[in-house]
Amino acid sequence: MRLLNLIFICAAFLFLTGWGHWGPNVKIGLALDNAQIRETLVQKLKEAMEDNRAELLVKDAKDDPAAQRSEVEEMIQRGIQVLVVIPCDPSKASALVNEAHHAGIKVISLKGLIPDSDLDYLIAFNNEKAGELQARAMVKKVPRGRYVLLGGDAAEEASQNIRKGQMKVLQPLIDQGDVQVAASKWDAGREIATTLNSILTREKNKIDAILVSDEEKAEQAARVLEKLNLTSRISIGGLGEDVNTCRRIASGAQWMTIYHPPQKLAEETAYLAAKSARQATEFDCQFVEMDNGPQKVKAVLLTPLAVNAQNLKSTVISDGVQKEADIFKK
């Protein structure tokens, strides 16, 4: 009798918690914006899904929102139980959530929120933590000096959170006089060379560090410094792990970057997707609630890593995100 009770309790626990990693096979749909730039993430996701007994259907919209909607509809017809999406255009992606919910399918967005939707889950890297880590790494290199902050679109929450994280580190140093912010600019576009040139002219090149919010701004800042022969005098801190960023770090043209390990994202996504597909009621996730217009979204915010020349090989290269030969090619 005790044995039967124990078996019943174990079976009930597995049912209520979604069977852990050992339940029935499930089918997950992955709707990508552009597969070409996400090869490593897709491979890590496939491996993590296998570990969670989940089949992964992958669709590549090639940056076409209309194609992405058609692909989501196709995956729904093929019987996916959860939809994971990196939207081509978040402002148009609420239709994807609606399509999935109409079929009783939960939606997990990666990277960012989908506005005007009742999105179920978000898994992304913590932008405020990224800004904090970026500034902390730069302060180790430049503990005293004049900083320039080049942010993205001031209207975007991601840009605001990066700046918030930067200032969490910099403000105490500003208050005690060790750091001065020579310029703080927001720019939703990609042309910041003119802005930076103007700042350097005004400050007579007396700048020690530049913190930027994306790969494009870091690349343009590096070009400006190279033309002015200031590369060795002014340190750049950026975000991203594209091959050009890694080359700049390897060559010394950029001091550091914020790296988003795909393994972390893949493991968390596969776990949450598989459990949701098995209709789990309990999750071993550290959720926070984020505002998404009138809705609240449960989010898992992952911590990125600060990378410079010293740990480039043990992080970005070791993880397979970039190849050593591509970074150090002559």
Map the helices and strands.
Layout: H1 2-16, E1 26-32, H2 39-51, E2 54-60, H3 65-77, E3 82-85, H4 94-102, E4 106-110, E5 121-125, H5 127-141, E6 145-151, H6 157-175, E7 179-186, H7 193-202, E8 209-212, H8 215-227, E9 235-239, H9 243-251, E10 256-259, H10 262-277, E11 288-292, E12 295-302, E13 305-308, H11 313-317, H12 324-327
Parallel strand pairs: 1-2, 1-3, 3-4, 4-5, 5-12, 6-7, 6-8, 8-9, 9-10
Antiparallel strand pairs: 10-13, 11-12
Helix pairs in contact: 2-10, 3-4, 5-6
How would you describe what is shown here?
The protein has two domains: 2-119 and 262-302, Rossmann fold (3-Layer(aba) Sandwich), CATH 3.40.50; 127-260 and 306-327, Rossmann fold (3-Layer(aba) Sandwich). Helices cover 43% and strands 22% of the residues. The protein has helices at 2-16, 39-51, 65-77, 94-102, 127-141, 157-175, 193-202, 215-227, 243-251, 262-277, 313-317, 324-327; strands spanning 26-32, 54-60, 82-85, 106-110, 121-125, 145-151, 179-186, 209-212, 235-239, 256-259, 288-292, 295-302, 305-308. It has a seven-stranded mixed beta sheet with strand order 2-1-3-4-5-12-11, with helices on both faces. It is elongated and about 65 Å long.
